[in-house]
Amino acid sequence: MVLVSAGDALTARLIQEKGFDGIWISGFEASARLGLADNGSLTMTEVLNIAKPIVDAVKIPVFVDTDTGYGNFQRTVSEFEKIGVAGVCIEDNVPEAKTNSLWGGKMPLMNAEKFGKKIQVKRDKIKIIARTEALIRGYGEKEARSRLDHYKDCGADILLPHARKSVDVLRVHGSSKTPYAIVPTKFPGFTNKYLFGLGYSMVIWANQTERVKIKATRQCLGSLYSSDCAEYIEAHLGATLNDMKGLVDG
């Protein structure tokens, strides 16, 4: 299963149009769109408000990054299940020390037993993705595997060992009947086929669409500023008005 990030319904429809398996709503992207750092600033309500229009706009499953769970994880799961989200991801960062793990060094992690109890929530169809920061924060493969095994025993539906070094990517063949997910942001040359071959069942491209928008919008604004009109944008940069209309009318 390949998920691609979307922060709005229009992007989600483009992902569906291309034939990807599902949508990922990234905490990093959601924070950035509100002009916030990815440090636990988002509220559950803000992310629900992002997720609902996306769920309503597409027929493919939508998975949501809920960071450290917004406090009461049982309520978080219940609220996202109500709007039709297929799954939520929760990480074992200490909530008070939450920061984006693509940068920085070793940080404290939540006690594994405490995190395991946190994910033991009542739910109907919604999936729980349990993400460990043990690899990406330098605690090593042994600690990561120990945590993932414990989270599996506590009822996690999908296991996610987050990594930012390609050498830290786990081979998971035969190690668990529980599906594994991977977020290959820092090793973009790894193909979906290769990652599936390592034993992963879910590949999450978690922030590419928003980063493309930043670059494209800068190019658009640069052209508008320098040429004093939108002729070049109309001819070379932008989708047609009919294309935009078709995505929302059909």
Model description:
The protein is of the alpha/beta class and 250 residues long. It folds into 2 domains: 2-206, TIM Barrel (Alpha-Beta Barrel); 209-250, no CATH class. The chain is built from 10 helices and 8 strands. Strand 1 (2-5), helix 1 (9-18) and strand 2 (22-25) form a beta-alpha-beta unit. The relative contact order is 0.12.
Fraction of residues in H or I helices: 40-55%
Which of globular, elongated, flat, extended, rod-shaped describes the shape?
globular
What string gives the helices and strands in order? EHEHHEHEHEHEEHEHHH
Average of pLDDT: 94
How far apart are the termini?
Answer: 26 Å
CATH fold-level topology of the largest domain = TIM Barrel
Characteristic key phrases:
250 residues; 10 helices; globular
In a nutshell, what does this entry contain?
This protein is an alpha/beta fold. The chain has helices spanning 9-18, 27-33, 44-57, 73-82, 112-118, 141-153, 192-197, 208-227, 231-237, 241-249; strands at 2-5, 22-25, 62-65, 87-91, 127-132, 158-161, 181-182, 202-205. It folds into 2 domains: 2-206, TIM Barrel, CATH 3.20.20; 209-250, no CATH class.
